[in-house]
Amino acid sequence: MKIKGIEISHPDKILFPQAELTKKDVADYYAKIAGNLLKFGKSRPLTFKIFPDGVNEPGFFQKNMPEYYPGAIPRLEVPTRSKDKSNITMTAAKKAEDLVYFSGQNVIELHAALSTGDALEEPERMVFDFDPSEDDFGKVRQLVRTFKRILDAADITAFVSTTGSRGLHVHVPLRPGAQFQQSKSVAKALAQKLHGAEPEISTLEQRKSKRGNKVFIDTLRNAYGQTFILPYSLRAQKQAPVATPVRWDELDSSDFSAQSYTLANILQRLSQVENPWKNYARSRQSIDSLISKTN
Questions:
Q1: Smallest Cα–Cα separation from 229: which of 147, 168, 172, 143?
Q2: Hey, what CATH class is 14-118+226-245+255-272 in?
Q3: Which residues, in sequence order, are CB contacts of 36 under 8 Å at separation 6+?
Q4: In a 10 Å sphere around its CB, with 0-12 CB exposed, 13-18 middle and 19+ buried, how is residue 142 labelled?
Q5: Cα–Cα nearest to 244, from 277, 213, 196, 214
Q6: Percent helix, strand, coil in the chain (nearest 5)?
């Protein structure tokens, strides 16, 4: 089956009631943003969050690729690391038409593995998720700015993005050859150092009930099989916010938030602002160097 353009079923179906955005609006967005999104999402296992009745109703995550997906959609056999050594078939993406097809299946959010299909055991990034316990983005901004100073002092290159939800993500690009256990260990060491510098506003406590009003420094996604929200993915929030790569200095603005960029303004931003992650691919660091810098 060949996928053609924006031919999707029920194009006028409302998926974002507050923003008055339809399934066609979502498909159009993913078609236009594909060049940016696929720089980070191409040829890696994808996990979808699907909202058949729009974002005001419960959605669900989908890891396994449905059998009815057309043959034109890339697929990857991914080991589960279970005792029976089984695999699951997961969806991947290579072109804009793939993203449009996903939109036709009511996919709103695209989450990706930290490794690509040709090297599933080797993470190509570390991801730090700064998750506030309450709606206090000022604490998130303060904590991430402190983290930037710690990374700079250790000569570690990192990039920051909004999550489109409540917090921020910091990405550290890795060269080929890293192992998940190594990157997880480095991430944990950096998180502990950051917590030591900002104990009043941060926590490493996994249980939400124990976090109080502090920001959780989440490094748990730096493990095999975990995912991160793809840069430029929509989020299932009222105004269709977008997970957006940003400059570090944008964190200094008091009106900056995790949902500053939405489907309504992201394309204008991209036409007016230089790509803050343009050097991402050239900034990959060896895991051995990161281990030495965090010991």
A1: 168
A2: alpha beta
A3: 231, 232, 270
A4: middle
A5: 277
A6: 30, 20, 45
Which CATH entry fits the domain spanning 125-225+280-294: 3.40.50.620, 3.40.50.10300, 3.30.70.3300, 3.40.50.720? 3.30.70.3300
Model pTM score = 0.95
| Token output for 91 | 């969806």
For residues 252 and 4, give the distance between their C-alpha atoms in angstroms, rounded to a whole number.
Answer: 44
| Structural contact between residues 25 and 33, judged by C-beta atoms closer than 8 angstroms | no
Q: How far is C-alpha 22 from the chain's CA centre?
A: 23
Nearest to 108 by CA among 22, 193, 197, 171: 22
- State pLDDT tens for residues 199-241: 999 999 998 889 999 999 999 999 999 999 999 999 999 999 9
